[in-house]
Amino acid sequence: MGIGIWQLVIILLIVLLLFGAKRVRNIGSDLGSAVKGFKSAVKDEEKTDDNDDSAKLESSDEGQTIEGEASKVKDQDKT
């Protein structure tokens, strides 16, 4: 009940007729380079996040515990 191989072949032939082989090849290469650029950007972002986290851990002092009591403050009418 899904798309079979013959439906994909027919769709590919229609796309080739509409755009031409050269244009479809250019679109494919542009799409491939865009995906490659996206993947490299994600890897670079993960590396910078890891470096930032490790730098924060190295530069931070030991944690201090702050003791206290939480209380709820009710809104007072301003009259």
Automatic annotation (TrEMBL):
Could you confirm whether the keyword Hydrolase appears in this record? no
Annotated Gene Ontology cellular component terms: TAT protein transport complex
- UniProt feature, compositional bias: Basic and acidic residues: 69-79
Main localisation, per the record? membrane
Supply the NCBIfam families for this chain.
tatAE
Q: What does this protein do?
A: Part of the twin-arginine translocation (Tat) system that transports large folded proteins containing a characteristic twin-arginine motif in their signal peptide across membranes. TatA could form the protein-conducting channel of the Tat system.
The entry sums up its family as follows:
Belongs to the TatA/E family.
Assembly, per entry:
The Tat system comprises two distinct complexes: a TatABC complex, containing multiple copies of TatA, TatB and TatC subunits, and a separate TatA complex, containing only TatA subunits. Substrates initially bind to the TatABC complex, which probably triggers association of the separate TatA complex to form the active translocon.
UniProt-recorded name of the protein: Sec-independent protein translocase protein TatA
Can you name the source organism? Thiohalophilus thiocyanatoxydans
